[in-house]
Amino acid sequence: MIVSTTPSLEGYKITAYLGVVSGETIIGANVFKDFFASITDIVGGRAGAYERVLREAKATAMSEMEMQARSFGANAIVGIDLDYETIREGMLMVTSSGTAVKIEKIL
Fold it and tell me: Cα–Cα distance between 14 and 99 in angstroms, integer?
């Protein structure tokens, strides 16, 4: 499946717009990650544990969105938007949304 943040795909023609699709995931940080992240913040550097969790959450949200698009009969998703929202302390929601479409390669 081709996925893009752009409204069109170079070299392809959109033949059908099938609807809005989305994927969501909620992640919580555990005590150990919080502890090690606070040490990283004190001594400097990147919070690798948080970065891994965020990448995993993004991948999960994108995967759910792609599964929904496939169920619509789509072979691409355009106009993808990713959102990160704090639900409450220690919990983050990652959402992805876009438009499921059918595309054909332009000859």
Answer: 11
Q: CA-to-CA distance for 33 and 47, rounded, in angstroms?
A: 9
Q: Distance between CA atoms of 65 and 23, rounded to whole angstroms? A: 4
Amino acid found at 46: R
* Tokens encoding 51: 């970065």
d(CA 62, CA 98): 10
Mean pLDDT of 84-104: 90
Q: Position of tokens 């789509």? A: 74
Query: Which residue's structure tokens are 């639900």?
Result: 87
How many beta carbons lie within 10 A of that of residue 92, not counting itself? 18
pLDDT at 70: 98
**Strands across the sheet with 12-28, in order?**
2-3, 76-88, 91-105, 12-28
Let me know: does 24 contact 87? Beta carbons within 8 Å.
no
